[in-house]
Amino acid sequence: MISYKKIDEKEQILESLGEIALLIMLVDLSQDTFRVIHTGNDDYFHNLRSGSFQWFIQCYMKRHTSEDSYRKLDLLYHQFFKKRKESECRNELELKLVEKEKTHWIRMQFIRGKKDHGTSDKITIIVQNIDEIKYRNKRQQEEIRERHIKDNQARSTFLLNLSHDIRTPINAVLGLTQIALLHLDNQKKVKDCLEKINMSTGYLLKMINKVLDVSRIQSGKIELENEKISLKEIIQDMLDMTQDDVRKKQLTRTVDMEEFTEEWVYGDKARIQQIFLNLMTNGIKYTDVGGNLYFKAATLPKKYGKYNTYQFIFKDNGIGMSREFLNKVFEPFSREENKCTQNIQGTGLGLNIVKSIVELMQGNVIIESEPGKGSCFQIYIRLKPLEMQQKNKKEAKEDINEVIKQKRYPGVRILLAEDNEINREIAAELISYVDIEVDEAENGVQAVKKFADRPEQYYQMILMDIQMPEMNGYEATDLIRKIEQKRKSRIPILALTSSVFDEDRERVLQHGMDAHIGKPIALPKLIHILDEWLKIKDS
Ligand code: ADP
């Protein structure tokens, strides 16, 4: 009974193998014979019966395979089949079958049976059709190659655009500086040049920040904050910040907040503000004088677990966008080139950033637009509302003139370590406006020496650049913190640096510094931080 069952099972296995195999054959090398166990429904191998194995390889297969494939098979025949003592008991080849201009790919597997001593003379050969796998691999390789070409093209275009867009404001700065130098006795002209230089550098800075944003987003380096924020406050800020431009272009702006509830949420204030400002300023930029803008904020009724979906609509009746352009509107540096847009300043990076940030917030952007009629951007983002709605605490905005008028620190002396001469001059001058005395060092070595040579309490604080020749800010801080007089070594050291990402802030603190101030320096912010640290030191 049992042996019958076993035979049954073996047949069943063979039958199943037959389903996926074009050919199964048994070879006896000692007799140079083969026996066909199974042939599939394909034309190939159909008429094959039993016979001499050498004939099968050197006549039958030679006739039915491509030249290359046959060479491989012949090699294997000599190595694998002839050297029977070899311990290798499995082998396989991928071969190309050719018949009547049709080609197919097969995988031929050779499985040698085992004897107690050495290898057996019996070999099972299984042949499978692998057309589909080959086709898939080829398609995948083609896709990889196409993607590679596309990436390279995109990178070249990106760099070309970047170089062009950076050159434009730099040219303006260089040209205006020359004009100002030639008219030093004409105060009005110099003032005009300086204002324009200020505007160009502001634009340059914004652009560099956007480029960095794009590249950080693309490399997955952006992480969203999860702070308690008021959406209403962000909306109000956006409306306030753009009010001047709306007025200048005599636009009518309608704001609809009727369906907006639950303003307090966990989210990333700076990023949401970035989305709002980009879309609102686009609406203003791309709408003619006297046009209409519409903004709507709404909290949709459907909840996703603890999350609300917030909808924000930015609509205008401006120049609109063509259907072709809409297909690539989110690509970096894409700007619609036409008569209406040629005089409008822009980088074509904003919408790419908007889409990426919205997607990070598990949301989506929908755009509808028609040339000459206007555009409508709908933003949907999911945010978790705070359980207890909190009171609005707005940061006071500070004006540089007010700060200089109000703050004075006579008798305070700080050490400024900065290698770049112009940056050192700017920082020293700005700080001197509030009566702080500044001592300068050109690198880490000088800073450590100056500090060590002076008595305790001589300096109240150190402003330390990070990247400096001879000794960087981290190393200098390390040496200062190791000074034996405890109180002296604990002097507040604030990093003054162009490295402004979150990880840079963290690194500064890890290296024993007390705070991080990003360049370019905004005086009100600098004074605010100095004030805070001088107070801490005195307490
Ligand atoms: P930028 O405005 O700095 O060029 P964006 O990425 O914000 O960059 O926008 C990309 C392009 O999309 C713009 O250059 C413009 O051609 C088009 N665009 C964006 N917003 C609008 C709008 N509201 N109306 C018409 N065109 C727009």
Describe this structure in words.
With 539 residues, the chain is α/β, with parallel strands linked by helices. The protein is built from 16 helices and 18 strands. α2 (53-64) runs antiparallel to α3 and α7 (269-285) runs antiparallel to α9 (350-360). The relative contact order is 0.05. Adenosine-5'-diphosphate binds at residues 278, 282-283, 286, 316, 318-321, 329, 335-336, 341, 346-351, 375.
Note the overall shape: elongated
Taking all Cα atoms into account, the compactness measure Rg is 37 Å
CATH topology of the largest domain: Heat Shock Protein 90
Bound molecules: adenosine-5'-diphosphate
- Biggest β-sheet description: 7 strands, mixed
The total count of helices amounts to 16
* CATH class categorisation of the largest domain: Alpha Beta
The percentage helix is 40-55%
Low-confidence stretches: 391-397
| Class derived from helix and strand content | alpha/beta
The count of DSSP E runs of length 2 or more, i.e. the number of strands, is 18
The CATH architecture category of the largest domain equals 2-Layer Sandwich
Strand fraction: 15-25%
Number of domains: 4
CATH superfamily of the largest domain: Histidine kinase-like ATPase, C-terminal domain
Query: What distance separates the N and C termini?
Result: 96 Å
Mean pLDDT: 86
Describe the SSE topology.
Elements: H1 2-20, E1 23-28, E2 33-39, E3 51-52, H2 53-64, H3 67-81, E4 90-99, E5 102-114, E6 119-129, H4 131-182, H5 187-218, E7 227-230, H6 231-248, E8 252-256, E9 264-267, H7 269-285, E10 292-304, E11 307-316, H8 323-326, H9 350-360, E12 364-370, E13 374-385, H10 400-406, E14 413-417, H11 421-432, E15 437-441, H12 444-453, E16 461-464, H13 473-481, H14 486-489, E17 493-497, H15 502-510, E18 515-518, H16 523-538
Parallel strand pairs: 8-10, 14-15, 14-16, 16-17, 17-18
Antiparallel strand pairs: 1-2, 1-6, 2-3, 4-5, 5-6, 7-9, 9-13, 10-11, 11-13, 12-13
Bound molecules: adenosine-5'-diphosphate (ADP).
Residues 278, 282-283, 286, 316, 318-321, 329, 335-336, 341, 346-351, 375 line the site of adenosine-5'-diphosphate.
